[in-house]
Structure formats: C-alpha cells, structure tokens
Specification:
Helices cover 39% and strands 16% of the residues. It is an alpha+beta fold. A six-stranded antiparallel beta sheet has the order 3-2-1-4-6-5, sandwiched between helices. A hairpin with a 4-residue loop joins strand 2 and strand 3. Helix 5 packs across helix 8, helix 6 runs antiparallel to helix 9 (226-233) and helix 7 packs across helix 8 (192-213). It is globular. The termini are far apart. The relative contact order is 0.13. The mean pLDDT is 84.
C-alpha cells in the first residue's frame, strides 16, 4: 500500500522522489490516493496509452496530410486577420459602452497595438471587474459589456481562480483568455488544438509584458477550476474553453 505524503514539500524532495521512486510490482500494489507524480512514474510501459497521448500522436503533421487541410490552400494569416476585422466591425455597430473608457483598457490598447490581429482569431480576451464581464475586440480596440455577474457567480469565479493560488489578491481585475478550438481546427484539423494552446500562451505573455511596461502588477494563473470558470463565462468547455487567467491590480465598477 502507498499513501502520498500530505502537506508542502521542497523542490529537493520532489526531485529525489521523482528520480529514485521504485516501480511497484504490477497488480500487487494498492494505492489509497491519486497523485500526479505516481500516475506518471508508475504508468505501464506498454501499448496502452492514454487518450491525451493518442490525440497528440494523431495530431502530428506529415506531407500526405496537407491536401486535407484548408490551411494549405490559402493565406492563413490574412484569413485570420479578416475574421478579426469583421468581428470588430460588428462590435462597433452596437451602442458604445462606458467600459471602453475604464481600466484596464489602457493595457488592452497597448496589447492590441503591438500584437498581430491574427493572434486573436481563436483567442478571445475577456475582462472581469467586480460584477462586470466585458469582451475586448482588438480591432477597433473596444470593450463591450456582455454580462453582469450575480454575487454568487462572482464568488464562484474568484474561488475557482484561487483553487491552487495562495496569493491574497482576490480583489483585482481578471483578464480571461477564452479559446475557440473549432476555429483553428477549421484550418489545421486536429493540429489546431496545439496551435490554440500555443497562441493562448503568446497572448498571456504579451499581456504580462505590457503590464510591466505600464507599471501595473499582473500575474498569470494557469491552474484553476476549469468547469466553474467556463460556467461563469458561459462556454461549454469543449468547443470553447478558458485557458488562462491574468490577474491585474486595479478596481472599477460599472452600473
């Protein structure tokens, strides 16, 4: 039997346990708890691979696959910019919203000015400040309010973001990166999932860099209760899902 150690551990302890962990005798060990290190180190070295590994293998690119991908038949970046441009044009036809005049709009303006619009094809930037959810469109750099959170939803969201986060800064503004996996799949098939993850990371790093340049305290949260955040953001978690949350110092309230 094996029960994982509770409580914090040092980097040295984790390294030693990873390097020197013995392999359990197959079918002779009963584990009382799930543990990510044990799951990886004790995984059977056989043809029985996990679903994630299978998806990774099936998404590999090779020359014979190119005729099946729309990305091989058009200028991908031009198409992606056109989609973002049209999405932005649709947003400005709506009534201007006061959220566009409030922070962190300065940060998002810097992001939009320095980032290729194509990067926002599959990544949507949402802002949560107190009870307000707004969507930022990089072209033409507007914030449109889409939802007012109930007190319960606001609590659920903050608790979900702080699932593994011990920092005591629950009052900041949240910039939430929501991915549409289907958009890159249209162009790249199964490979599109990889591209979407990479682009979410690029956008997150751009936000952090611009926040530093503007002397705004910001940090990324990548581990959170996904289903709770997706529920508050009203995305299904399959075709669309939250990939990253950026916490930014500041405070504003609308309405």
């Amino acid at each position: 039997m094996k029960r994982t150690m509770d409580g914090p551990m040092s980097a040295q302890q984790l390294l030693e346990e990873t390097l020197y962990m013995p392999l359990y005798f197959p079918w002779k060990t009963v584990r009382l708890q799930r543990d990510s290190l044990l799951d990886q180190r004790q995984r059977s070295a056989s043809a029985n691979i996990s679903s994630a590994e299978l998806y990774h293998e099936n998404s590999k690119l090779y020359p014979q696959l190119l005729p099946e991908l729309r990305a091989s038949r058009l200028d991908v970046d031009a198409f992606r910019r056109e989609v973002v441009l049209r999405r932005g044009a649709a947003s400005v036809s709506e009534t201007p919203d006061p959220a566009s005049l409030l922070p962190p709009h300065k940060l998002l303006t810097a992001l939009a000015e320095a980032t290729d619009p194509a990067l926002f094809y599959a990544i949507q930037v949402r802002v949560v400040a107190e009870n307000t959810v707004a969507i930022h469109e990089p072209m033409p750099d507007t914030l449109q309010i889409v939802k007012r959170l109930s007190a319960q939803d606001a609590r659920v969201l903050r608790d979900a973001v702080h699932l593994m986060d011990t920092a005591d800064d629950r009052e900041g503004i949240l910039i939430i990166l929501v991915a549409s996996f289907a958009r890159n799949e249209i162009l790249l098939g199964r490979r599109g999932y990889r591209r979407t993850l990479l682009e979410a990371g690029q956008v997150a790093e751009q936000i952090l860099a611009h926040a530093r340049a503007l002397s705004m305290a910001a940090r990324a949260v990548y581990e959170f209760a996904d289903r709770d955040v997706d529920a508050v953001m009203e995305v299904d978690g399959v075709e669309e899902g939250t990939l990253a949350v950026i916490k930014v110092e500041g405070h504003f309230h609308v309405g």
